[in-house]
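README: folding subset

This subset contains proteins for which both the sequence and a predicted structure token string are available. Records are stored as plain text. Below is the entry for (California timema) hypothetical protein (297 residues), shown exactly as it appears on disk.
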Amino acid sequence: MSEKDCLVFPARSWGDISHQPVLAVHGRQDNAATFNHLIPLLPRGKYHFLCIDLPGHGLSSHFPAGLLYRVLTDYIITVRKVVDHFKWRQVSIIVIYMGHSLGGLVGYYFAGAFPELVKKLIVIDIMSHSNLPTHHHTELIRHYYEKLHEFEEKSLTKQPPRYSYKEALSRAITGRPSELSITSAKTLLTRDLKQVSEDRYIFCKDQRTKFLVFPIISNEQHMALLSSVRCPLLLIMGNQSSLKNFALAQELLQMFKKNCEEFRYFVVEGGHDLHLNNPEIVAPLVTNFLNSPKCSL
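--- output ---
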């Protein structure tokens, strides 16, 4: 296979590569820079943190024309490919949700599908993904096709929009599900902008990530998938985040408490992007969990 036929997943790492690996997975339409504020506050003397750009995000390759990004298969396979590449026998995954359950879902599904590869799971601001009732599933399939067709038609006649840095920064802030500080937005843009001329930029992310394909299953089936998560789990939610109001939240929390080797759940000050805006609140919880003797690495 030639290099041009391969998908490339750029990453950023912290710490000594010989230390215990921690694979960090960002959220929908974000990138590896989402961890730039949090990881410097974590114990890098014991861990090697690797933050990847998922396909279609940040500096990573885009999927070929005509395809959509599927959460349950494509991104889980991506994570497994990374684990195999580094020959990690076991890996702790920090999964961060930013947008539409992407990072958190990938972590839940990966830990359930490959329990032998995951020692600990850390999820920030996602309970789960709410699924449509089964009688809407055919409508959802049609929706995915129509969005892809619309995107392809526009791509044939239009070039990607070009923005000044100030305009791009404004879009990065206003396009969030909750408040994002200017500093945090600038951090994300370090891996999401490509300069094409003097003070003109295009976004790097694939616009198809706006309509990711989530599993077309019922809430009951989805809960059954999540019941496979058995490793120690830390779940941190922001008290200003709408995502803590997941319809089956109490049922999910009880299931994790029953099934996981250890389950820690915290609701702390902050919105959806609390790890970016307030990393000093999140870092002690993550550090304590990583270093916990009860579920020691």
